[in-house]
Design a protein that fits this description.
With about 160 residues, this protein is of the alpha+beta class. The protein is about 30% helix and about 20% strand.
Length: about 160
């Protein structure tokens, strides 16, 4: 999986963010996940039509059709056997997510309102961002572990 990630970074510009025991691969300066690498395998976020084609081209892959995103899932033990097809599909997933979703549906009501002479639609309010969580206190001696609620280091040596 590390080789796949390195080659993916070489072919496209991506941001990689850790999330627990998995990695989220996103297009550069974007907040949408294109590839999710986890201990059980890899999930690729693709368009519905393209997801079916990719799943048929990769042995053992299956399509998870969740409502907001369609994903092609490949189990970890099948990655080496389908490496080239998986790398090409991962590059395609990043490029699709970087391009974004088509905005023609959102532009249609505005065009209709402008053509009929009615008042224009109001701008949607920006979503409020949650306050960032404070960093948990770390052990001042070893600087490796987060302190317990009692204020002690869990290593037992400090």
């Amino acid at each position: 999986m590390a080789r796949l990630l390195l080659e993916l970074r070489g072919r496209t510009s991506v941001d990689v963010r850790p999330s627990g025991r998995s990695l989220q691969v996103r297009p550069k300066d974007s907040n949408v996940i294109a590839v999710h690498i986890h201990p059980g395998g890899i999930d690729l976020a693709l368009d519905q039509d393209r997801a079916n084609e990719v799943a048929l081209s990769i042995e053992g892959a299956y399509v998870r059709d969740d409502e907001p995103v369609t994903q092609v899932s490949v189990e970890a033990y099948l990655i080496d056997a389908n490496y080239d097809a998986l790398l090409a599909a991962a590059v395609e997933a990043v490029e699709q997510r970087a391009a974004g979703k088509p905005k023609a549906a959102a532009a249609a009501p505005r065009a209709r309102a402008a053509s009929t002479g009615t008042r224009a639609a109001a701008k949607p309010k920006a979503a409020a961002k949650p306050a960032p969580r404070p960093e948990p206190p770390r052990c001042p001696k070893c600087r490796q572990y987060e302190l317990l609620a009692s204020g002690e280091c869990p290593s037992g040596y400090c």
